[in-house]
Amino acid sequence: MSGVYHVMLRGINKSDIFHDRMDYVKFRKLLELAVNPIDELGHPMPPRCQFFAYCMMTNHVHLLVKEKSDDIATLIKRIGGSYAQYYNLKYERVGHVFQDRFKSEPVENDAYFITLLRYIHQNPVAAGLTNDVISYKWSSWHEFLTKGTVPIVRKKDVLERISFDDLVALVNEPLPKTTVILEYNTTRYRRSDEEVSTFLCETFSLRTPKDLALYSSERIADIVYRAKDFGASIRQLVRLTGISFHHIRIS
């Protein structure tokens, strides 16, 4: 499934990014503009992407998306930047709204595609925000069940892979607890040594990752926490920084 990704954006420091109805409406409008963009004169432009599912939670967002005229990094930067500008103006604040880097994974087959359709729409139920999928207002599930005024998801493309009745049945059946999905707190998403090294050096102004050992214990713990969140493994950090396994593990 070329160019299809599961994407997650999370509020910085796990902070809420939606506080009232208008915040959700604004973000949804940005998704709409990504699939139906217009130029400065109001003329239609080629779609930047194609959405198959989305869900806006209190402090994070899930997207099942396919690249079109924008690559995934450009697309998420565009959406996140526009929302951050709105958010900071509304709430009279400055600085980042989203965590430094979004997380994404390629979706390589139809089986995982269907699993993600279930997972994304079941997110509010799993988080205890609602008792059933259909009751949650801020996901794309209502688009599959009703004729929305301005649809965002490509329902037709989804239903070419699975029948409507089967999709409804699966989305309303909780996923097994053993199902592994990309999340911020899982170890499924891993970086290469080069990626981790670049992240440490560029983010924290280190000459090499081994310079991390020169910092205080508190600072090391903070940087290690962020590196793990970035996707670095404990053994990878031990190898790259020279800091003991015990110190890295408890950070």
Q: What labels would you give this structure?
A:
11% strand; single chain; 251 residues; four-stranded antiparallel beta sheet; 10 helices
Q: Please, could you describe this protein's structure?
A:
The chain has 251 residues and is α+β, with helices and mostly antiparallel strands. It has ten helices and four strands; from the N terminus they run E-H-E-E-H-E-H-H-H-H-H-H-H-H. It has a four-stranded antiparallel β-sheet. It starts with a strand and ends with a helix.
Summarize the structure.
Helices cover 43% and strands 11% of the residues. It has 251 residues and is of the alpha+beta class.
Please render the helix and strand layout as text:
Elements: E1 4-10, H1 21-35, E2 49-56, E3 60-67, H2 72-90, E4 103-106, H3 110-126, H4 141-145, H5 155-159, H6 164-171, H7 193-204, H8 217-230, H9 234-241, H10 245-250
Antiparallel strand pairs: 1-3, 1-4, 2-3
Helix pairs in contact: 1-2
Counted beta strands: 4
Strand order, sheet with most strands? 2-3-1-4
Fraction in helix: 40-55%
| Unreliable stretches | none
Largest sheet: 4 strands, antiparallel
Globally, the shape reads globular
* Number of helical segments with 4 or more residues: 10
Tell me the series of helices and strands, N- to C-terminal: EHEEHEHHHHHHHH
Q: What value does the average pLDDT take?
A: 87
Termini separation comes to 38 Å
Determine the strand fraction and express it as a percent band. 5-15%
Structural class: alpha+beta
Instruction: Tell me which oligomeric state these chains represent.
Output: single chain
CA radius of gyration: 20 Å
